[in-house]
Amino acid sequence: MSTAAEAMQGIPSRRRRTRTRSWSFSVLVALLAVLVVTLAFLVGAGYLRLRELRQSETAAAEALAAARTYAPDMLSYDYRTIDADLARARGYATGALADHYRELGTVLPPAVKRQQTVQQAVVAAAAVESATPDRVQVVIFMNLATTKIPAGGSVPLKQVSQNRARFVLVNGDGRWLVSELSTLIGNAPTD
Predict the structure, then answer these.
(1) Residue 139: which domain range?
(2) Which residue among 7, 51, 74, 168 has its CA within the 20 to 30 Å range from the CA of 180?
(3) What is the pTM of this model?
(4) Interatomic CA distance for residues 116 and 150, integer angstroms
(5) d(CA 59, CA 65)
(6) What backbone torsions phi and psi does residue 135 show, to the nearest 5 degrees?
(7) Could you say which DSSP state residue 116 is in?
(8) 167: nearest Cα among 63, 91, 73, 35
(9) CA 67/CA 136 separation, integer angstroms
(10) Are 63 and 96 in contact (CB under 8 A)?
(11) Rounded average pLDDT over 170-179
């Protein structure tokens, strides 16, 4: 009887061990499932971020090339062709900037023709300041050569200056257009 009693006492401890093992296995499976889900989320988020970075890099290269091409046309004009020059510049603009060029078409030509102004912008350098897949900000360094006859004068005045401008380009219908244009006043950093 002592052996039967001893055998009976061993049964609950085996059940406890089996339950403990079963519970431990369940916890391990749950932890592994959480780990797999977390890892899948991180891989997915990483992939999306990498894709956005690649798209931003492509956008930056395309918009930079567009800005380098557009800047001379948007910032240059000749008193003999001022209306066509402003229309061409407006073709590269969108939104409020296109409206601004439209307004310039009514205000600027009389003064430009009167002073026989010719302004020629030449891009010296350009760089991307910030970029997303749909919006790129570009800083342009340029040389401006301006010739005009001042009021009351008869001899053309020639001036060459170095300037900076910031173009904000947006992607519209597969084409980069300038939505904002601002000149950067002040001295260029020396260091």
Answers:
(1) 22-184
(2) 51
(3) 0.70
(4) 9
(5) 10
(6) -145, 130
(7) T
(8) 63
(9) 10
(10) no
(11) 91
Residue 4 lies in a domain: no
Amino acid 140 reads: I
Strands (E), 27-105: 77-78
Separation between Cα atoms, residue 135 and residue 37, nearest integer Å:
34
Let me know: does 77 contact 69? Beta carbons within 8 Å: no
**Token pair for residue 77?**
């004009």
DSSP state of 93: B
At CA 46, angle to CA 42 and CA 50, rounded to 5?
175
Q: CB of 116 within 8 A of CB of 149?
A: yes
> Would you say 136 and 176 are in contact if contact means Cβ atoms under 8 Å apart?
yes
For 6, 25, 31, 91, the CA distances from 18, given in Å and listed in that order, are 19, 10, 20, 78
Distance of CA 50 to the CA centre of its chain: 15
For position 168, which CATH number holds? 3.10.450.540
- What are the tens digits of pLDDT across the range 119-172? 999 999 999 999 999 999 999 999 999 999 888 888 889 999 999 999 999 998
Q: Is the pLDDT of residue 188 over 60?
A: no
**How many structural domains compose the chain?**
1
